[in-house]
Amino acid sequence: MSAPSKVRPQTAEMPPVPLTLEGSSVLHQMMRFRWAEWRRLNPGERNRLLNEAQPVLQEMENRQSGLYSLLGHKGELMLVHFRASFDHLKQAELQLARTGLSDYLEATTSYLSVVELGLYDSSVKLYQQLVERGLQPHSPEWNAEVEQEMERQRAAMRPRLYPEVPPNRYICFYPMDRRRGEDKNWYTLPIEERQRQMREHGMVGRRYAGEVKQIITGSIGFDDWEWGVDLFADDPLVFKKLIYEMRFDEVSAVYALFGHFYVGVRFPAAQLGRLLEGELPKGNTNPQQH
């Protein structure tokens, strides 16, 4: 009788999914203003509605909301809310809906997401270390090591996970996907290759660090696209230059698919009346200084 053969342990493979950190919940509200109905109101009624709405909007600003006047046909207003949870985002929606001014606002679209930091470099480095130690992916020992690293990263990245709305005058928002087709599928690439491409992609953004503030949000499972991108700057031309240059790196040229772009000018809630009188507020747009 032959001795039973020994089963050789399988070599653990690195998981394909990179680790991510999640922070603030984010809601973009794009709206059209019903100008014809607004103009039919007498001045006293318009003032009453403004006096009711402005304190509500100013409170939202204090809780990390930004108000923007959109350029183009996609709407007149965009409100961007950064909050601690989806419940808090819903409360912001309800606050606005309860004002009389909301009767003159018509939603055109919205976008729901959470601030997301992708940890491609850290993930690959950690996965390689754990595999070399003989740990099996998703085992209790593996998960404990991963959670320890995640806690360290959360503490180090907290300011980026829970950002304040940048005070810059201009915003550019757009959703995007990593394109998936019959020939090219981002999600089938090895994690090391995706890490390489994302590192090159990030190097372009870092060259614009002094000119533009970028906040990436994840929306897989929350909205129609996979990510949302907010760019904030005092010179809107930087949006064109940054996005155009990024189109030439591999991850964008081969895999990226972009949705509609929304460009707006920030204004303080205290100057909403001036905006509705046809005068765009100029100069400093930091609501805390009005």
Outline of the structure:
This protein has nine helices and nine strands. It has 290 residues and is α+β, with helices and mostly antiparallel strands.
Keywords:
alpha+beta; 290 residues; 38% helix; elongated
Write up what this structure looks like.
The chain is of the alpha+beta class. The chain has helices at 35-39, 43-62, 86-97, 120-132, 140-161, 191-207, 237-246, 250-255, 272-276; strands spanning 19-33, 65-70, 77-83, 105-119, 170-178, 213-218, 227-233, 256-258, 262-266. An eight-stranded antiparallel β-barrel has the order 1-3-2-9-5-7-6-4, surrounded by four helices. Strand 2 and strand 3 (77-83) form a beta hairpin. The longest helix is centred in the middle third of the chain and has 22 residues, at 140-161. The chain is elongated, with a radius of gyration of 23 Å. The relative contact order is 0.18. Mean pLDDT is 90; it is low at 1-11.
